[in-house]
Design brief:
single chain; mainly alpha; 0% strand; Methane Monooxygenase Hydroxylase, Chain G, domain 1
Length: 206
């Protein structure tokens, strides 16, 4: 790692860790949604909405710190990109839960549980990785595994689309379910964006 002659603002590390921990909370709510009775989903959506608001607060705190700090631990653009990508994950997860409730989906198609399991694993890996930004150690396996998970999520998504268009569902139901599985796929993409940003930061700091 490069030797630095100037001190660096360290609170960013804690804020990134808090943002990632909140994403783990969101992924657990997604898992809870899977096994919930339709009548219980609105309450889960409320908790997810609260988690999404907490994520927004964490992102705004990072942006505020960025705008008020003379010295940052790494490039300002990378800090902005990392915070924004973490925020995107929560936005997509909250949107998926909200759509399930708004569309009164009785039963999610088989395969959605695999999508959510991938997101839950990516959330755990992301939360584990954030503290390592302090030293930039032991991060390579993180971004390799998240990229692998995103590829897995792509395969699951394609299978879900094929299932939706096999004639089992009517046209309106296809539109509803496709929007949900597409948003979950966007969450997987956002995890990859976070991992790619972390890789970029690590390369610059090496």
């Amino acid at each position: 790692m490069r030797f630095r002659l100037t001190p660096r603002e360290t609170s960013f590390y804690d804020m990134f860790a808090a943002s990632a921990d909140n994403i783990v909370t969101g992924s657990k709510l997604l898992m809870e949604l899977l096994g919930a009775d339709p009548s219980a989903r609105a309450e889960i959506a409320e908790r997810m909405r609260a988690a999404e608001h907490a994520g927004d607060d964490a992102t705004h705190a990072i942006f505020h710190q960025l705008n008020s700090s003379f010295i940052t631990p790494f490039d300002r653009e990378d800090i902005y990109n990392l915070a924004s990508s973490l925020d995107d994950i929560m936005d997509f997860m909250e949107e998926a839960v909200d759509l399930v409730v708004l569309y009164n989906v009785e039963e999610l198609p088989k395969g959605v549980e695999q999508q959510i399991e991938v997101l839950a694993r990516a959330a755990e890996l992301t939360a584990e990785a954030m503290p390592h930004l302090r030293t930039m150690d032991n991060l390579t396996e993180y971004w390799i595994e998240v990229n692998r998970l995103e590829n897995q999520a792509d395969q699951i998504h394609r299978k879900l689309l094929a299932q939706l268009f096999n004639g089992k569902y009517d046209a309106i139901e296809v539109l509803k379910l496709k929007q949900i599985v597409d948003v979950l796929e966007e969450a997987a993409d956002a995890f990859e964006h976070v991992a790619n940003t972390v890789e970029t930061i690590a390369v610059k700091e090496s």
